[in-house]
Write a structure and sequence with these properties.
Structural class: alpha+beta
Shape: globular
Largest sheet: 6 strands, antiparallel, barrel
Order of helices and strands: HHEEEHEEHE
Helix content: 25-40%
Number of strands: 6
Oligomer: single chain
Number of helices: 4
Strand content: 35-45%
CATH topology: Pnp Oxidase, Chain A
């Protein structure tokens, strides 16, 4: 796993609260809106997200076992809020790519340093804005 689960847990209660208001506006960042598998509660999780043809790719900085990843896979859909726009996305698919193809050069280097090579692809089916 790229970053330790302990860091993910600390982010969940701390850093995410700080970054959430900015994540939907900054390039390379976004919010994934998803529903809890058991609770049904709606969550907004800050992520590293990049536009690709037909949708988005999200770098899974905490690996594939994160709750939000499981929630999106179970639901088969989510919303991505990035750069001031909200997109309805479906067909989540996990993939592993050690070359980090399709990521901007600087991002590729950072992801390599943190050993991130798992991603989620999503297909855009509409825009809410």
């Amino acid at each position: 796993m790229p970053l330790p689960r302990k860091v993910a847990e600390l982010n969940k209660v701390g850093l995410n609260r700080v970054t959430r208001p900015l994540a939907g506006q900054l390039p390379g960042f976004g919010l994934v809106t998803h529903r809890g598998r058991r609770s049904g509660k709606e969550y907004n999780t800050p992520v590293n997200v990049f536009r690709v043809e037909g949708g988005f790719t999200i770098a899974l900085t905490y690996g594939t076992d994160s709750d939000w990843v499981k929630n999106v896979l179970a639901a088969g859909e989510c919303r991505i809020h990035t750069r001031g726009r909200t997109h309805h996305c479906t067909a989540p698919r996990l993939f592993h790519d050690e070359s980090r193809t399709g990521m901007p050069s600087v991002v590729r280097q950072i992801l390599a340093l943190t050993d991130v090579s798992d991603f989620m692809s999503l297909t855009t089916v509409g825009e809410d804005d």
